[in-house]
Amino acid sequence: MAALHTMLGGSLVGFLFLLISGMNSGKAYGLAERESRSIARINKRGPYLGIVIPNTFEMNPLLQSPSFAPDPKLPQLDILGKRFRIGRIGDKNVILVMTGLSMLNAGVTTQLLLTLFRVEGVVHYGIAGNANPDLQIGDVTIPRYWAHGGLWNWQRFGDGPDDELPLESSGDYRREFGYLNISDYNIAGSRGKGKSKESNYLNNVWYQPEEIFPVNGVPEERQHAFWVPVDGNYLAVSKKLQGLKLGSCVNGTTCLPRPATVVAVERGISANIFVDNRAYREFLRSKFNVTPIDMETAAIALICLQQRTPFIALRSLSDLAGGSSASSNEASVFGSLAAQNAVDAVIRFVALLGS
Ligand SMILES: *[C@@H]1O[C@H](CO)[C@@H](O)[C@H](O)[C@H]1NC(C)=O
Ligand SMILES: *[C@@H]1O[C@H](CO)[C@@H](O)[C@H](O)[C@H]1NC(C)=O
């Protein structure tokens, strides 16, 4: 869409109207005529910043914030099972949309947002598990790169790093992004100390890049992407968030050891996996140098990469994935604080973009 925006300039609105309501009354999208007209009306007032949010727990603090002003005439539009909320944050027109859990929902929702609406960029926020023991619950992380860590080639027992993977020669899979050696995590005997050096039938897992088909590429001619960078301009603006005052206490009584901060980090990773496991968290940290671990961001990053739409994600840390001590998952105590901190940082970020 970005390329189309530039190409068509002023006639974009007309083009979208044609696209959505012209041909076959928009039935190609499964849209009713009333919906198509609403979309055209909304787009006329664009462009918008798309704000993509995993769930209500993370969205509600933004909806309740005085900084978010819903559009007085058309505050929301329900389309194809999704609710798009129209409004403003400061001087910026925004469209909020909730994805639901995990990569499929996140990708589909983001694509729908970019297909239907005139969106100049996407800001994603939420809470995340933490893989970086130097940071704390409530800190808002802004990674430079995101990867999907759930596309695997699971190597057969007996093969190792020197053996070709199936379909490697045709370019489908590669031995580039390291591997998880399951037997590194064996426990020797029931009373044993340290690791067993024995092998494990689960052998090795190799992480794979996604096949992508950019909007300005050749259809059916795949490219590959593993580390997806966020937008350089958005990243530069986000640097101004450092020093932002964030909440550090729940109910004013239960406080974090130090005030929460906004932190620029190198990388984050997403997959359809809820990581509440210390060994896997430590593997992700040492292998990929990631800080936030979540279940949506990379899908949104991959869609924005393919649609050539600027993208950034702010993820606040809710717990040290897999626990730091014997205590239970800290997300239950500090989750709401983490969600509020992410919202506070996003509101400030959008204000900075609009200024
Ligand atoms: C996997 O780890 C085990 C145990 O640490 C080791 O003996 C084995 O050589 C490793 N295999 C590969 C393929 O690296
Ligand atoms: C904060 O207050 C709410 C409502 O009274 C309560 O349900 C919750 O357990 C409290 N949380 C903490 C960490 O004290």
Automatic annotation (TrEMBL):
<feature type="signal peptide">
    <location>
        <begin position="1"/>
        <end position="28"/>
    </location>
</feature>
<keyword id="KW-0732">Signal</keyword>
<dbReference type="InterPro" id="IPR000845">
    <property type="entry name" value="Nucleoside_phosphorylase_d"/>
</dbReference>
<dbReference type="InterPro" id="IPR035994">
    <property type="entry name" value="Nucleoside_phosphorylase_sf"/>
</dbReference>
<dbReference type="GO" id="GO:0003824">
    <property type="term" value="F:catalytic activity"/>
</dbReference>
<dbReference type="Pfam" id="PF01048">
    <property type="entry name" value="PNP_UDP_1"/>
</dbReference>
<protein>
    <recommendedName>
        <fullName>Nucleoside phosphorylase domain-containing protein</fullName>
    </recommendedName>
</protein>
<dbReference type="GO" id="GO:0009116">
    <property type="term" value="P:nucleoside metabolic process"/>
</dbReference>
<feature type="domain" description="Nucleoside phosphorylase">
    <location>
        <begin position="275"/>
        <end position="350"/>
    </location>
</feature>
<feature type="domain" description="Nucleoside phosphorylase">
    <location>
        <begin position="49"/>
        <end position="151"/>
    </location>
</feature>
